[in-house]
Structures are given as C-alpha cells and as structure tokens.
Design a protein that fits this description.
InterPro entries: Homeodomain-like_sf, HTH_AraC, Tscrpt_reg_HTH_AraC_N. By secondary structure, the protein is of the alpha+beta class. The protein folds into three domains: about 170 residues, Sandwich (Jelly Rolls); about 55 residues, Arc Repressor Mutant, subunit A (Orthogonal Bundle); about 60 residues, Homeodomain-like (Arc Repressor Mutant, subunit A). Helix content is about 50%, strand content about 20%. It is built from twelve helices and ten strands. The strands form two sheets. It has a six-stranded antiparallel β-sheet with strand order 1-2-9-4-7-10. The chain has a four-stranded antiparallel β-sheet with strand order 3-8-5-6. A hairpin with a 5-residue loop joins strand 1 and strand 2. Helix 1 runs parallel beside helix 3, helix 3 runs antiparallel to helix 4 and helix 10 packs across helix 11. The longest helix is centred in the C-terminal third of the chain and has 20 residues. The mean pLDDT is about 95.
Length: about 300
C-alpha cells in the first residue's frame, strides 16, 4: 500500500472510531451511510446485504455467498450490487486494533443518475456477472470516501455536499474494473437488470410458493436461460435463494418474538414443520430451539 493510501486509510480509521464510541453499527447523519466498530472476531452472522459499498479501514472480514468466499481488508473494497443473502464474519479484530468499517448503501436510481450524467457506455448484450465482488482500493476512490465521511464533523454541509460526494464515489466505482458489472443493474434490458427484477419479486413474495415460470417471464427469459443467469448473478439457484431468505427471516422471528418454531415455519412459507427443522439445522448447525437458546445466552454474556 502506498504512503498516500496508508495515510488516508489511517485518517478514515480515526474518523470511524471517533463516530463509534463503542462496538456496534451506527447509522450516521448522512443518508445510507453506516460506520461499524467491533473489538473482537465474531461468530458468523446471517443477513441480506443491500446494494452497498463496504470498505474496511482496520481489520478483516469474510463473506460467504452460497459456497463462494470473499475476504477483504484495508487494501480492498466489497460491492454488493443487489440484495443478496450472505454469511458475514469478522476474522481480524482486537481491543487494541478494533475492526472499523464504512458501509454506503445505494439504489438502482442513484446508479442510473450517475450513468446518465457521466454518459457511461455499456454494451447492450453484456453477459450477467456475479453481483458481489472485491476490488482493489485506489486513491481517487478512497479520497472520495474520505470527503464523504469528513462531513460527519460538519453536519451543516451534509444536505448539499453528501449527494455530490456520494455521486463521486459511485462514479469512481463505475470507472473502475467492475464498473460494467455495477452499471448493468440500472441498464434496462440487460440480463442483470432483468435478474434484479426477479430477485425483488422473490423477496417480496418470499413466503409464497416459488413459480419459476413466472420469474422467467418477469426476466423475459426461457426457464433454462433464467436459471443460468440467476446462478451467475447470485451463486445459487432461485430455490436456494428463497430458502436462505426464509430461514434468515425465521431465525429473526424466533429471536425477536420468542415464537413457536412450527408457527414461524408456516409464516415464512414452509408447509412442513419437520422439513423446516431439517433445513434450519442444516443452515445454522442446530434445531431452532437449541439455536435460539444459544443465541440468547450469547447475547446475555455479551
């Protein structure tokens, strides 16, 4: 890492630490900007990543998308260009050198605005690409990130400058090696755009039976082409994607509502409580009751 990159990374780490007095995820005064601090390595966390840019100023994190592994630290950034069910784990952190990171969520309409303003050119028949990737941080992108985060110390400037700096960050990403991949989520007619629409339909109807024919029609693809493109983008089949969403939602409900496992199974779309229990155990390592008991005990200890 160059001297300039190192200096800016260290400044970003100081800013994040200043705006996160203790471990946790902090929603900032800048729309869709979060800073995260953690003093220890963590257990795997299951969640749906929204379209976002993640950059770590200190520490290291691992993300699993289906069976695909992404590891990134201060020399990298991670992009999730669609809603994706993942498993995340902080694998390098300590009280003396806590994990410090930045997360900026963005929308398809923001990408489209920057594409239009910058007259970005995209080949209309570009093939779909994986919707998650790790890139090498470069000085212009890190400078843009720093300008945005510095606004936390000058809140009066946020309404005017935050949208400008956010656009600059997205512009730098679009100009980077994965720019075409990111651009496709906003380019109507691209295969990635059509898969994104199908993903949104699955998420909105997660508790209902999966109808592949309807999803393929939404994407204007044959069933075989839809399956191929969907797996290319998400690293999983539509059925696997829905299963991850259902089980993550079930775990959230069990933890927050202390609800009965069978009731939750039906609420998230399972017709068989025994099937739900089997798939839950396969994903989280133990049956619903034992898993939730362990999670609550860990929360009490923490």
């Amino acid at each position: 890492m160059s001297k300039e990159l190192l200096e800016r990374k260290e400044e970003l780490a100081r800013l994040i630490e200043h705006h996160s007095s203790q471990d946790g995820v902090y929603e900032t005064a800048i729309p869709s900007l979060f800073v995260i601090r953690n003093s220890n390595v963590t257990e795997p966390v299951y969640r749906v990543y929204k379209p976002s840019l993640c950059f770590i100023a200190q520490g290291t994190k691992e993300i699993l998308l289906a069976k695909e592994r992404f590891e990134y630290g201060p020399a990298n950034y991670l992009i999730s260009s669609m809603n994706l069910p993942v498993i995340g784990q902080i694998i390098k952190a300590s009280p003396n050198a806590p994990y410090l990171s930045f997360k900026l969520e963005f929308t398809q309409s923001q990408i489209l605005k920057v594409l239009n303003d910058s007259e970005f050119k995209l080949a209309p028949k570009e093939n779909a690409k994986r919707a998650m990737y790790v890139g090498q941080i470069e000085l212009p992108l890190l400078d843009a990130i720093l300008r945005l985060v510095r606004l936390l110390d000058d809140p009066k400037d946020i309404p005017f400058l935050a949208p400008i700096y956010t656009d600059e960050i997205l512009y730098r990403l679009l100009q980077g090696p994965y720019g075409v991949t990111l651009a496709q989520i906003a380019m109507e007619g691209s295969s990635t755009y059509r898969i994104r629409e199908a993903i949104e339909q699955i998420i909105e109807n997660c508790d209902k039976p999966l109808r592949i024919e309807e999803l393929a029609e939404t994407a204007s693809m044959s069933i075989s082409s839809f399956h191929r493109h969907f797996k290319e983008v998400t690293a999983m089949s539509p059925i696997q994607f829905q299963k991850h969403l259902r089980l993550q939602e079930a775990r959230r409900l069990l933890l927050s509502e202390s609800a009965d496992a069978a009731d939750v199974a039906f609420r998230v779309g399972y017709e068989s409580a025994s099937q739900f229990s089997r798939e839950y155990s396969r994903m989280f390592g133990s049956p619903p009751r034992a898993d939730i008991k362990r999670l609550k005990e860990d929360m009490l200890i923490g």
